[in-house]
Specification:
CATH topology of the largest domain: Diaminopimelate Epimerase, Chain A, domain 1
Mean pLDDT: 93
Oligomer: single chain
Strand order of the largest sheet: 2-3-5-6-8-9-10-19
Number of domains: 2
Low-confidence stretches: none
Radius of gyration: 19 Å
Largest sheet: 8 strands, mixed, barrel
Strand content: 35-45%
Shape: globular
Structural class: alpha+beta
Order of helices and strands: EEEEHEEEHEEEEEEHEEEHEEE
Number of strands: 19
CATH architecture of the largest domain: Roll
CATH superfamily of the largest domain: Diaminopimelate Epimerase, Chain A, domain 1
Number of helices: 4
């Protein structure tokens, strides 16, 4: 599950919306506007009662941008109203927002999110509203204990074993997940290609299992003729794509000996992203970001 908001935050009403293979985020700026409560986050992300999105990124007021010699600081929120550690697509979309406004240049620039520093790059001019955006996610890890995994939950070959009820309720299915941290928690399940119905059934069962005390993102992965993944995202549900999920999938595939270190495409339902994984487990994510719109929240929101 997402964390509760750690402190009050006020945002300006203007927003920018973009997506990475259908995984969309709204970017707001901190300012003297409406208080961003958990309830307002839920309303803004609602696709019928708000602009709608898979999450919100807020550029903190202290983050004027690298072009002004200031450090960019971000906070991120899930549609369930909780704050979370980081999103690969959220970072890349925020990078496009800053690039369009001339607050960063074409080179790599540092961003602080979830208390950690990563680097983002948005080169080019965004022809047709489509940008090439990359993020250095830092070193991937394989947690075997808190905060992302419960003590004693990781067993043989670095996996968490879970006995889950089948969709028809006729019995149990044993699933083994590889826990991965990309600054946020993931559980990667290898095997046959799962249907969307199976993803929506097993995703929340794994994501909410006691083995993952903070909840976890879940990836169902098929390796053979490439890497294909279907994703259940913590605080969101089924999603067409996820940047940190793509990094977690590649790291887990390397860790389990399915593929070597290097650059590989991860094909998700919304499209493919490229992940570079070095032999020190440092991950870089590459892919397109497409602009959707800009807008202003109506008055009276609380």
């Amino acid at each position: 599950m997402s964390k509760k908001l750690r402190e009050p935050l006020r945002i300006l009403p203007g927003f920018f919306k973009a997506h990475g293979h259908g995984n969309d985020y709204l970017v707001f700026e901190e300012g003297n506007g409406v208080a961003l409560t958990a309830g307002l986050v839920r309303r803004i992300c609602d696709r019928h009662r708000g602009p709608g999105a898979d999450g919100i990124v807020v550029v903190e007021a202290s983050g004027g941008g690298a072009a002004k010699g200031e450090e960019v600081r971000l906070r991120m929120f899930n549609p369930d109203g909780g704050e979370f550690e980081r999103s690969g697509n959220g970072l890349r979309i925020a990078g496009v927002f800053l690039r369009r406004r001339g607050r960063v240049g074409e080179g790599w620039f540092p961003v602080v999110v979830g208390g950690e520093r990563v680097r983002v790059r948005v080169p080019g001019t965004g022809v047709g509203g489509v940008w090439d955006a990359s993020v250095e996610m830092g070193r991937v890890a394989f947690p075997s204990g808190p905060p992302f995994v419960a003590v004693g939950a990781v067993g043989e070959r670095g996996r968490v074993s879970l006995a889950l009820p089948s969709p028809d309720g006729a019995g149990e299915v044993l699933m083994r997940a590889v826990p991965v941290s990309v600054g946020n928690p993931h559980a990667v399940v290898f095997g046959r290609r799962r249907s969307r119905a199976e993803v929506e059934h097993y995703g929340p069962l794994i994501g909410g299992a006691p083995a993952f005390p903070r909840g976890t993102n879940v990836q169902f992965v098929e390796v053979g003729g490439g890497i294909r993944a279907r994703i259940w995202e913590r605080g969101v549900g089924w999603t067409s794509a996820s940047g940190t999920s793509a990094c977690a999938v590649v790291a887990a595939a390397v860790k389990t000996g399915l593929i070597p270190f290097g650059r590989v495409a991860v094909r998700m339902e919304g499209g493919a992203m490229e992940v570079e994984l070095d032999d020190d487990w440092a991950a870089r994510l590459h892919g397109p970001v497409e602009e959707v719109c800009e807008g202003v929240l109506a008055g009276g929101l609380d």
